[in-house]
Specification:
Largest interface: B-C, 31 and 30 residues
Number of strands of chain A: 12
Strand content of chain A: 15-25%
Largest sheet of chain A: 8 strands, mixed
Oligomer: homohexamer
């Protein structure tokens, strides 16, 4: 759907950018709905999740199509997704915001981590969530849920555009996740947003120092006074 | 996905079968989740809606992909769906249960009626709902909603398996809709269910007559007394 | 639980009292939560529903306990409730506000009507809702729902205190239902509320006449001016 | 907040414009959230509701501030709103989408109708809803609700900006309501939207005629073929 | 309701079994709805909660029946439940999923811990949740909630079948709770499920080792290749 | 709205009182709805939050009024609130329980902490939630949310009565927050509640000791046996 490839340089930039900054820049460009709603980290991580989207679409499970034996099929889309999501990519699952059943468990997620995937995001549940939280690879979900995915979800399509937490996710979009949650950056904006946000992060670090030193926010954040702009430039040069 | 074709004879049978009876028979076969939740008739109809599913999948609308100009594109999936849904079929839309915007309006639905479609079902909204309700062709929706579909929904795929009101709908499944709502009958069960339900409807007509004449329901509904079974057989032969 | 018996005289009074007036009087006595939330008439009726509560409690259905064959059991609590709810009483069902399945259908409700029951109230669904709406006996529900109750609900207890639409309903409480919905009047207050509300209804009829004739509401509703009180007394004597 | 005054000429235009058309034109101007969500007509009306907003804000009721005696106060904001909402205006109430209690009843709404108000819109409940539905003046609400407003809502402010059904409503904005629901048109756009939509309604009437005569929608709606544009012009001139 | 008694041997087995494994085995036996929805541990525990259900049913509190003085009654069902729930059992509360008020606080839960109960599960709130979380005895709830239970809940029945988080819970059922949440195992299946799951846990431990060593999941999980089965048998014998 | 000023002595009392105790005492006085629903600490704190309410009201954001440039305005109500909320006060925000966007971020909240405010409470989201959680000043919110407040919320009014989490909050009310959540104490009851609750806390400390020593709760909590009352008096004197 896109031939954009996230470079290591841009990935490195995003590692230091907050989802809050990305949200503001996308807002400025008219994109108001790129934050995956209702999704939290399985466990807090020090490092930010960054990677392009590889998607899996679930539909409601019909009982006669979702017996336990379907997993014996080597072509079952959930299993295929886990084995084919490229290293450095994030597996994003559309579970229609229904977390009454799981969409994956710790064995599958561990396999993804071993394969070098960058993360997993689902708007449904995850089972064995404690085990998943102990991995270095970040995972975002709605909540823990013990029932097997077959209870509610039939894995259907791989790498098609999906909905996740009310956001449109296209294969190849860049996902960035921190403790606030996950932002979806359309592939064609990924370079531009990384560039602009890197600058914002520096300015916000400066502002925070000023605020901790007692400065009022008006005229400083956003910067509407010349003296503050000048101060920032000096601060920036010293770093 | 299926090569089942609903015959006119089976369609005629379903025209006289209630969604309640279908639900009971599917339940008996282990299918508990075939009633489209949260969907009501735009206006009550005397005739039951019957037709095979032709589907349209929406994902959340991303602002930069959904300006009003997209409708100028002759390939826009919503427009194509309206023009290609076969006569006698039901257009079923997956709007992720989000009715804060419409999924179609009266002009498009009128076009479908003129083309001989059997109905339309959406788990989102419909605009110009009064106009839609005045058509003979039945329509089922969540609620009236004036905003254009572009506000929340991007039409993406035609005739793929979808979710509608928490039910899996596969292209070719048989949809039956009355004032209670809409049942989804898997294609491979369509003949069998029609057959069995036709018998149930006769029995229920008999029971209702008995009840109106003062009979208690225990032993009659379900029929566990021999005398009632005999009485029903006599009643049935007279008809 | 109560030995209160609703007399025909009090029933007749309630037939002319609105649920709004009852709500206000219960509010005055510290009872703020006696309106069954989320419940509407299956079809509008000219006559107000009045009757004492006879209750049925459902719990979630466990699949191995709720095959279709349970209805063959003459002791099945739902069937027993339909046959034993006394004439003049209202069958009130606790379905945990889950309307994704029915709690009764038109045959059972017709049986209740034939038996002289005063109505049925459920915070779940009803199937064959059109048929139920055509009966003279009023019915209140959350929404139409084709699936059999066994799909989600196991009938368990008869005539125990229950929750219905977030309200506590004790057997013997008086239920009054009009187009606004259903109020639950604790048995020990039933006489007092009927008495006071009858007076309120007269006053509101007077106020409405005044308002239609152009009177402002301040000083009139509630009546804080002596002249309005006097006017009402004259109006009342003429009737 | 605005000194815009809706002229009788513009009001007349809006009387013939659907909320669906208004939604599309506001969408084109970047306003995606002007449809009051979750609000329906108390009863369908042949005539469209048109009027400028006069607002009332409720906050949650604290028990010690909201005894029945507060209505005896001539300054109670709800009563004042009913007596001061100007003729031709629409009273819009912010009830925080909580319809578990009423925000007005038939006596107050009748008084507004007598005073010449253009309508009432609340995202909460209305009591005596049947009586309100029988008035000529249109009313929009979430659902019928018997409990007095004091149960949940304390009337606080008159004619301040509010939220109603998730939409910002500023005093003086133009509200248009039909069977789909209610659109909020910012005052500064009211003339422009009326003008453009009047044209759209004519075009849609033409399209509907064409569709009923068998025309496909692609190339016609929106109009991307020259021949259709020409046809419309001819149609328009004949009228 | 059941005369099943959980033996210490079976309890010990369940201590090493995950709720995910139990969910899969119940799913295999047609039980899809045994995971208590919307319930989380008050604080994570290393040890799994295991015990038979002892139940308490709440209905909505009516203001005139639930003054603070009711707790002075030695027969108040909540207090009685806390004092009579047998050691080794789990107190399960039906609060109709309403967590706007508490269902117990730290003093009562501490008393249960001292008495040797195995845990507490409520689909409502708990107050003094920090204190409860510090106990060794596990507790599961919807969320912290400071208001006394009397605000919303009247304790009514002890040891009757209830709903908890949309699951049917019968007295004597076995509850197993870990960080994913709580599974309800029907008493008549308790032995069988313990037996089968113990085997599954061993296999999953083997699979996890294989995955960490780089093995792909297809053919391994579930095990569809002979070589993997053989490998597992060897692994199992070595342990 | 009130001229009550929280003294340092009363503040000190509240620092040792739990929200659970306050809820019980307000319940006793007829106030059942003073617990802010749906709000949790951003991070657990050892110290209880205590302070008088300073309020900020948001309404839904209209796109044409909420470009990023509005923050350049020194009078933007959100920025003004952050700079003018008095030291020792709690900033309470009405975000209509919509957490799909933030209501503040870590820079603004840090500024408040530096200014000596006592805390912040919002029924919406907060961005940079990790940074906010690391401050000593307590913060309560619905959940983390990266999108800027402009996405959904327009800051409108300062220090007017508002709704927060379904509770009425008047400027000057006393807010007390611990790990269970936040209670709102009407200003005119602040002294009385502090006094009574201080006594309750002592009694509960005694009860907990007794319970840990094996005492049953009946007759002890609440205290209905003379011997327990006597025992408490002795315990209290020793402290």
């Amino acid at each position: 759907m896109t031939d954009y490839i996230l470079s290591e340089a841009t990935r490195a930039k995003y590692k230091r950018i907050s989802t809050a900054s990305i949200a503001t820049q996308l807002y400025k460009r008219g994109l108001r709905n790129q934050f995956i709603q209702g999704v939290v980290p399985v466990s807090p991580k020090l490092e930010t999740m960054v990677g392009q989207a590889f998607t899996l679409r679930y539909i409601p499970a019909r009982e006669d199509r979702n017996g336990l034996e379907v997993f014996r099929n080597a072509d079952h889309p959930q299993r295929v997704a886990v084995e084919t999501c490229p290293p450095g990519h994030v597996l994003v699952m559309d579970a229609r915001k229904d977390a009454s059943a799981a969409t994956a468990g710790s064995i599958l997620v561990t396999r993804m981590a071993i394969r070098g995937c960058a993360g997993i995001v689902t708007d449904g549940g995850l089972r064995d969530a404690t085990g998943i939280g102990q991995l270095d690879m970040p995972a975002f979900y709605s909540r823990p849920s013990a029932p097997t995915n077959l209870t509610k979800h039939e894995a259907l399509d791989i790498n098609v555009p999906i909905a996740c937490g009310d956001v449109a996710v296209f294969p190849g979009d860049v996902l960035v996740g921190d403790n606030d949650g996950v932002m979806v950056i359309p592939a064609h904006l990924a370079e531009e947003i990384a560039e602009v946000c890197a600058g914002m992060e520096a300015f916000e670090a400066f502002v925070l120092e000023e605020v901790l030193a007692g400065a009022p926010i008006i005229g400083l954040y956003p910067c509407t006074k010349d003296e503050n702009e000048k101060k920032f430039e000096e601060w920036h040069q010293k770093r």
